[in-house]
From TrEMBL:
Name recorded for this polypeptide: Uncharacterized protein
Species of the source: Ottowia thiooxydans
Keyword Transferase belongs to the record: yes
Region named Disordered: 1-21
Origin organism lineage: Bacteria, Pseudomonadati, Pseudomonadota, Betaproteobacteria, Burkholderiales
Record's keyword terms, sorted: Sporulation, Transferase
Amino acid sequence: MDNVGSPPEGISISFPPESDAHHMHDQVTQILRPLGGLDWCMGESLDLPQGRVWRLRLKEPHFEILLPSHDTLGLRQRLTQITNISGNDLLMLEVWVALLGAPVRIDFADLDELQAHVRIRCNIARAAEKTALAFKTDAAERPSAFWQDQPGTGFLLKPEASLTDALTAATQPERTGRLYEFSCYRATEYVILLGIAQEAECSRPGLYEQLERTARTRCIKSGSFHEVFLSEYGTADVPIPMNYYVPGDRVWFKNPDEPSSNASGYEGSWVIYLGDGCFSNFWKRDSPYTLQDKMLEIYHWRDGAYLDDQSMLQMNEKLVEDKVASTQKSPDRAQQVLNRMMRYRDLMGVYSEGGSIDSSREFPRDLSSIAASLAKETAHSSTSH
């Protein structure tokens, strides 16, 4: 059972030494007042097993107005109706309000980490919006001016290359004039790492140097990437509400149709939540997905799957597009599909009555935690060799 009807848990910040509630309130006031969100949140001191923290969350009336039932998909539109904030500040305010309305409390080591986290989420959302790639699951290519392919290891950053420049060149075609081949999973890793690296370059130069050194010697990807760079919350028993997303979240949508899920790359879809009710579309960046768009596309993968001349399962993307367009013209049919898809997914390997929605969300860890994980990863790599 999810926690849609529960009040927000918000975020917490550990009290620094010699600090008190008045000091924490003043610090938060300086951050939120320019964004216009100061009057929407409440703060309180909590004594937790890990120590004393200052918890921030939306006040109940504002929660009901801005995040009804933890629905963030319409949050930006609701914000524009009650504030004059625009542009990058509006995205930052959207992140703040979504975090203050979090259904499960998110803990931060200090205020600097919280502010960096908000900026990183904005970086990721903006980078994902600019990302345009060529979809390919069995091959990959990166701009050779920045990356070198090391057999058995992966793509490593060249000695004199800037990490932020290299990640940007690989994902944003304006830099090179061409699209590079990615799977959606690897693409999300590059976009997330870019968002983290951009913040580190500005505020934590020591961590940025650490990120660059690591990228020159090792390719941290898949499970290791998750362990080093990401946090995850929500479980099958206590899932995150279906319509709760924070800009910068990495989200997995499962293909609940077993036959078509056997086509390489169509087991499901990894996306970044951009904010304003939209999810990244790395293959057609000018057409980001709404949640409903994504559900219809994944549902109709079952119609596009076919066996090629080598008896390999492939996907007819044009047929999928045609099926989606046809379904969209029939409100009753579209609702039937959404009723089937807008359910929490089954466990991995199970294809029963579950839909496409994941019970968890992934987001960047604190920068100090990332630095510690990188150091541990380096030590482990040195001893294993």
